[in-house]
Amino acid sequence: MEPVVQFENINKSYGKHVAVDNLNLSIEAGKFVTLLGPSGCGKSTSLRMLGGFETPTSGRIMLSGKDVTRVPPNKRNVNIVFQDYALFPHMSVAKNIAFGLELKGFDNQRIHRRVSELLELVQLQDYANRLPAELSGGQRQRVALMRALAPDPDVLLLDEPLSALDAKLRQQMQIELKAIQEKTGKTFMFVTHDQEEALTMSDTIVVMNKGRIEQMGDPNTLYGRPGSVFVANFIGETNLLRSTVISSKGDVAALNWNGITITANPGGLDPRHGEHLYVVLRPEAIHCSAAEPVLGNRIKGKIRQRVFKGNHTSLMVEVAGGAMLNTLVHPSDVAQLSSEDIWLGWKPETTTVIPDRHAQN
Ligand code: ADP
Question: Which of 5, 170, 265, 295 has a 20 to 30 Å separation from 281 between CA atoms?
């Protein structure tokens, strides 16, 4: 199937500053795709180029098989939802949603049908005649979404639309946004710097760093198999164990981490003796116990800090050589860890290995 969006060798510079650096990205129709990365990495610029609000310095943008690189925003079949909703304050909910349809010259009957259908989709049928000021933050957000979806864009662009909401509402809206995307089957291109938001909603996450794609994939792959230190740090919490290869054969590498020998699956890297690697060890992959565990990797440690987080407790554990490991313990297991002295264990296959590109021996 032909992708609905294609960024081909897209560059965007502001003077000498390169905001987007050779972006190549294809987006399949009907997917929820998120551009994720720290502030200033080029997410919004990429989105705005697809919306037509910015022109690439070089490269080509294809939308539904047509070159739209120099087509003005109102002539491309995309729509954008901003963080501040930008609803028309003096228009009713129904009028707000109808706005884009009137611009397109649809007849009244068709507009009425479409508006009713969209209000029903977000259960706002009873609010059609209210003004935006008479709605809650979540309801306003839904209306803004429906207004943008009304003219049936090929892609809906969402630039940090949830960042003004409080934490609870934000989580609810994440679930709802994903549900709306699935029900409508539309392609959503979402921009956020919030990794949790990206993991919750996306079919595909595109991690950006300094104007480039660092890695893209489904949430599970990015979390479980980060391809770089940047991605491992940016998505979820992690322990990064910088280790030196002792030996490596097939699926098993013996590594020296801070004077401790650990094993890991090198994942096809075929590392040489003396080479440096990072082992990505997620806090939840570490098993904490009072007794020595029967696991491929096990080390003794001392609990230096306990942080209660409600549904789990985070333990900072000091191991030989003074290194700290961040672990995560479920409430039912905390009681047996009353002593400062504990064992940590993990299965080698729960870790991922990343080459240390800057420090080869
Ligand atoms: P993000 O959305 O990832 O936070 P942006 O795409 O907004 O990042 O910006 C990428 C880079 O381009 C930043 O360094 C930003 O300062 C710069 N930039 C964005 N828009 C402009 C502009 N209109 N003029 C000059 N620099 C800009």
Answer: 170
